[in-house]
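Hey, resending since the last one bounced:
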Amino acid sequence: MVILQHTQQISVTDAARRGVAGVVHEAEQGSEVIVTRRGEPVAAVVAFSRLAELERAEADLRDLALVMARALTDDGQRTSLDDVLAAFGHTRASLEELPED
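The structure tokens again:
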């Protein structure tokens, strides 16, 4: 899976020469700019819409991992709310009687 698609790498020095407006303009046009220092990536400039897309994908992957983990560990046994409350010394009625903070 490719995270950044239309990338170009530029050095910090070159990014400084182009200026913020120039680098941002390239990102707005769909080119993801990887800024490097001594040949190593240190930053990326991407369009905000691409960032939002990546954040949605991250959330979807997190949800998928949770579903898969639950599916793999589910033994089919269920615990009722009343049993959980009893384990903590409460009932539905005792919870109703608690003061609201």
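The first helix runs from residue 12 to 28.

Sorry for the duplicate.
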